[in-house]
Design brief:
60 residues; 1 helix; 7% helix
């Protein structure tokens, strides 16, 4: 999972696979396995990228 999340860069849009009600989020930072994402419905969330593989969004 960490390998996939490593390609995520600030500005990219993602969804959390376990929290669809959070909506689309924008990656704020990706540092040392900690992914900070600002979600439309949940606000800013820090995610352990070794545990959760985010889903990229290409059509928001």
């Amino acid at each position: 999972m960490e390998d996939f999340n490593a390609i995520l860069t600030p500005g990219m849009l993602v969804r959390h696979p376990g929290m669809p009600d959070w909506g689309v989020g924008q990656v704020q930072s990706n540092i040392s396995g900690k992914l900070t994402v600002n979600f439309r419905e949940a606000g800013k969330v820090v995610i352990d990228s070794t545990r959760i593989a985010m889903l990229p969004v290409f059509d928001s």
